């Protein structure tokens, strides 16, 4: 074993640093989910950088495309060079271009920097989740994955609260400066406190083999990957579609606008609860059983929201239930993916799953917006989202709970 390998492996058997650092990496993802939405009203009202409504839409879409490409491409890098170095590089790339966004002179550079920052950020999620699934104790990989993803929602909430104070006093640029500085502050800790994954070292010790994206679709893995991709697409379509349009859909149903915003908060509270519960269920009952139950209940809960309910308590309870199952269903897809694929291509498989899912993240708000524009968001918006959950259920139903041992790497057998 080389001295570099010995150093990288040191400390992987215990300690909280990997848990804390991967969780913090997910808070950066949560920051990015809401930062553009937080600054769009200011950019629009002030005509900042020459932005128009159309170019702001382009900025949002192109940023998500960067995240999608980053997620797809990083898996092969992490499977070749390691989870640790890949995560450090991703955070550095994201931090540089997020911080620099605060100083751009025009909308073209703003959009370009959002795209490049998205490449780094999109790579963070699959790399961090791959790391945590391998770092977790035996029988707790799903819980480790879902707990790590709570950082995503915490980051979104913190950034939303910061935006309320920072933008009026310091301008929209301050949010991007804070986001970049937070990433810079995280890098030294990642470098000095994050050891390499034991699973990666066991497979790669003495070699640096190139991993091809095509390896996740070879043989029987083709059908498995298609099922995972369909579910991931539908899962993120639900997450982004509901986060974008739930207040508007509920207002069309006759609820107050302020009530719609409160229901959005309730939905995300349910998401955090679901992340803690779902991982434990998956570890105890199996990944496939858990993810099928979560998407199945999500489909039913979303369909029931199409019914106008007079009791405010029942409405909030129904939305909370939807949040518990809808949001964590997508995270269970990641946990299921990490469980199915061998360590040699695990990050590649997770990256592809996250990348395809990001296409759903783009389509969800687009679908919701189209229905709102057509005046049919209520009740058909809930029917459409329920159908997405049902499609994910069907796609995963045909994915095996485990892969045969002869399709796994020796270290995973």
Automatic annotation (TrEMBL):
Pfam families registered for this protein in UniProt: MFS_1 (PF07690)
CDD domains given in the database record? MFS_PcaK_like
Q: How does the protein's chain sit in the membrane according to the entry? A: Multi-pass membrane protein
Principal location: membrane
Q: Report the SUPFAM superfamilies cross-referenced here.
A: MFS general substrate transporter (SSF103473)
| Gene3D superfamilies in alphabetical order | MFS general substrate transporter like domains (1.20.1250.20)
| Location of the Major facilitator superfamily (MFS) profile domain | 18-404
Determine the domain of life of the protein's source.
Answer: Bacteria
Q: Tell me the compartments it is located in.
A: Cell membrane
Keywords, A to Z, come to: Membrane, Transmembrane, Transmembrane helix
What parts of the sequence cross the membrane?
20-43, 49-73, 85-104, 110-129, 150-168, 174-192, 221-242, 254-278, 290-307, 313-337, 349-374, 380-399
Query: Mind telling me which PANTHER family this protein's record contains?
Result: CARBOXYLIC ACID TRANSPORTER PROTEIN HOMOLOG
Q: What is this protein called?
A: MFS transporter
């Amino acid at each position: 074993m080389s001295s570099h390998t010995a150093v990288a492996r040191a400390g992987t058997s215990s300690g909280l640093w990997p848990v804390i650092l991967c969780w913090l990496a997910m808070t950066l993802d949560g920051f990015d989910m809401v930062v553009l939405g937080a600054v769009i009203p200011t950019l629009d009202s002030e005509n900042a950088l020459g932005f128009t409504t159309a170019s702001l839409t382009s900025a949002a879409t192109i940023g998500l495309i960067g995240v999608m490409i980053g997620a797809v491409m990083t898996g092969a890098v992490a499977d070749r060079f390691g989870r640790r170095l890949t995560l450090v590089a991703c955070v550095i790339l994201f931090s540089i271009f997020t911080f620099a966004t605060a100083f751009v002179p025009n909308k073209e550079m703003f959009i370009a920097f959002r795209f490049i920052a998205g490449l780094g950020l999109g790579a963070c999620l699959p790399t961090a989740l791959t790391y945590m699934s391998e770092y977790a104790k035996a029988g707790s990989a799903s819980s480790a994955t879902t707990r790590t993803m709570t950082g995503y929602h915490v980051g979104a909430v913190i950034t939303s609260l910061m935006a309320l104070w920072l933008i009026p006093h310091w301008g929209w640029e301050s949010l991007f400066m804070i986001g970049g500085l937070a990433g810079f502050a995280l890098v030294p800790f990642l470098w000095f406190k994050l050891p390499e994954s034991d699973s990666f070292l066991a497979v790669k010790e003495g070699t640096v083999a190139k991993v091809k994206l095509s390896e996740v679709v070879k043989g029987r893995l083709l059908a498995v990957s298609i099922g995972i991709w369909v579910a991931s697409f539908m899962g993120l379509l639900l997450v982004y579609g509901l986060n974008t349009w739930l207040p508007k859909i509920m207002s069309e149903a006759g609820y107050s606008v302020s009530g719609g915003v409160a229901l959005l908060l309730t939905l995300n509270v349910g998401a955090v609860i679901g992340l803690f519960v779902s991982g434990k269920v998956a570890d105890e009952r199996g990944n496939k059983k858990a993810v099928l139950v979560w998407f199945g209940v999500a489909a039913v809960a979303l369909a029931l929201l199409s019914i106008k309910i007079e009791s405010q308590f029942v409405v909030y309870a129904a939305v909370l239930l939807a949040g518990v199952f809808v949001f964590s269903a997508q995270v269970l897809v990641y946990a299921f993916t990490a469980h199915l694929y061998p360590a040699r291509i695990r990050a590649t498989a997770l990256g592809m799953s996250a990348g395809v899912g990001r296409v759903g993240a783009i389509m969800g708000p687009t679908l919701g917006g189209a229905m709102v524009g057509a005046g049919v968001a209520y009740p058909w918006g809930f029917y459409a989202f329920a159908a997405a959950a049902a499609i994910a259920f069907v796609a995963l139903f045909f994915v095996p709970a485990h892969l045969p041992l002869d399709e796994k790497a020796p270290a995973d057998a």
